[in-house]
Design a protein that fits this description.
The protein has five helices and no strands. It is an all-alpha fold and 114 residues long. It has a single domain, classed as c-terminal domain of poly(a) binding protein. Helix 1 packs parallel to helix 2.
């Protein structure tokens, strides 16, 4: 009995990955094994960097809060400590947004914790 392989499914699986690697340079876009490795490595980077992105944004928020707090004579550490002591429940994302886009509101927060 002849060997039966499902070439339709195999071809479709390969085409799907080759389509994903379409914009790559050289063999990465059209040689199956190279394209597959590139695609899998890209997924690994995407997973890792979705996690890293959160830390990068937190770092950016902290820098913005620190810069705005220093304008009002306080550093980041003191400001966040006094916020916690006064039970003001604003997170870093909101504070950074206020510092950038609404300096009057941020100044009011700083004055309330002084």
């Amino acid at each position: 009995m002849p060997r039966s392989v499902n070439s339709v499914a195999s071809r479709a699986r390969r085409k799907k990955i080759l389509k994903e690697t379409k914009g790559n340079f050289g063999a990465r876009k059209n040689v199956w094994t190279v394209a597959k490795n590139t695609y899998e490595k890209g997924l690994t980077y995407a997973y890792r960097d979705r996690k890293a992105k959160k830390g990068e944004f937190r770092s950016l928020w902290i820098q913005r809060i620190n810069a705005a707090a220093r304008i009002h004579g306080m550093n980041y550490s003191q400001f966040m400590g006094k916020l916690a002591k006064k039970n003001i429940g604003l997170n870093r994302k909101v504070l950074a947004d206020l510092a950038m886009n609404n300096p009057e509101a941020f100044e009011a927060i700083v004055n309330s914790v002084k």
